[in-house]
Design brief:
The protein is an alpha+beta fold. 35% of the residues lie in helices and 25% in strands.
């Protein structure tokens, strides 16, 4: 699985650093390091609603407040 977090200026203002840090922590805490390729990108093209996060070819909008729910519903269920 490949997870990419937008770290461009618009997403940065919406909390991309917190989202990325929390996702990294959840990946490590779950022992998924060998199953997940984690990276950042400067623009994923979906900046309006929140921080853009892609899982393989699907893009989602995540906030620091919703990142744990996103991980449980979108990441763990696909591992």
């Amino acid at each position: 699985m490949r997870i990419t977090v937008c770290i461009g200026s618009s997403c940065h203002l919406k909390g991309s650093r917190e989202v990325a840090q929390k996702l990294q922590q959840l990946i490590c805490d779950g022992g998924y390091e060998d199953k997940v390729e984690f990276s950042g990108a400067f623009c994923l093209g979906h900046c309006q609603p929140g921080v853009s996060v892609s899982i393989d070819d699907a893009t989602y909008s995540v906030t620091p407040e919703t990142v744990e729910h996103f991980f449980e519903t979108e990441v763990k269920t696909k591992l």
